[in-house]
Amino acid sequence: MLPVRGRNGRAVRRVRILGTRTAWTPVGDGEFFCPDCGGDRNYQRLSGRRRFTVFGVPVLPRGTAAPVVRCAACQGHFGADALDHPTTTRFSAMLRDGVHTVALAVLSAGGTASRTALETAAGAVRAAGLADCSEEQLAALVEALHADTGRVYEEQPSVTGLAIELHEALDPLAPHLAPAGRESILLTGARIALADGPYTPAERDTLATVGAALTLCSDDVTRLLAEARTPS
């Protein structure tokens, strides 16, 4: 940069001789959670080409720039990994589906003969966002699950089948939950299991699978299952 001097000999501004400029081209758009705005916003995904400049004029290519995401509201630029964070709407749906799957898995392990367990499960699912969930709907879904796998309530549930469903629902959710949030989901399942009496072996196995899907260590799972048995 060279100084530009006025009549009195003092530098009044500087002129940049050489520099680099990035030209951005939109290559996609959508909705994302903007870290700066703190909410769901529209975005443009941009690819960039860098050029050397002389006195601000692009003259020579300097390769490509890493793609960025530009918020349509605040105009902030973020790395492409910003799209890995779910939108608020998507996160709410993931949480709702996760709690619903945990409730079904625990009821499948313990059976639906207890009205108290069904009421506890339905209350938890409604609190998670499925406002129209009823005890009858849950019972019908568990019955369909058993019929689909050729089981009856007296038999031990298919651990493999339940594990797959739980991991499909909870694996994408767990990275976006604080430890307290992951523990809360496990405690919800534990309280459903305890609504009709002590844990059965099948319920413990199911809750252990829930804990693993939520990336909780076995010691934490044991602690939380004991904590759920203590009246608040």
Low-confidence stretches: 150-159
Q: Measure the end-to-end span.
A: 69 Å
Shape: elongated
> Helix content range of the residues, please?
40-55%
Our count of helices gives 7
Alpha-carbon Rg, integer: 28 Å
Q: What pattern of helices and strands is seen along the backbone?
A: EEEEEEHHHHHHH
Provide the structure class. alpha+beta
Strand order of the largest sheet: 3-4-5-6
Number of strands: 6
Can you summarize the main beta sheet? 4 strands, antiparallel
Strand content: 25-35%
- What is the overall pLDDT average? 85
Note down, in words, how this protein is organized.
The structure is a single chain. 45% of the residues lie in helices and 26% in strands. It is of the alpha+beta class and 232 residues long. The chain has a four-stranded antiparallel beta sheet, with no helix packed on it. Strands 1-2 form a two-stranded antiparallel sheet. Strand 3 (18-34) and strand 4 form a beta hairpin.
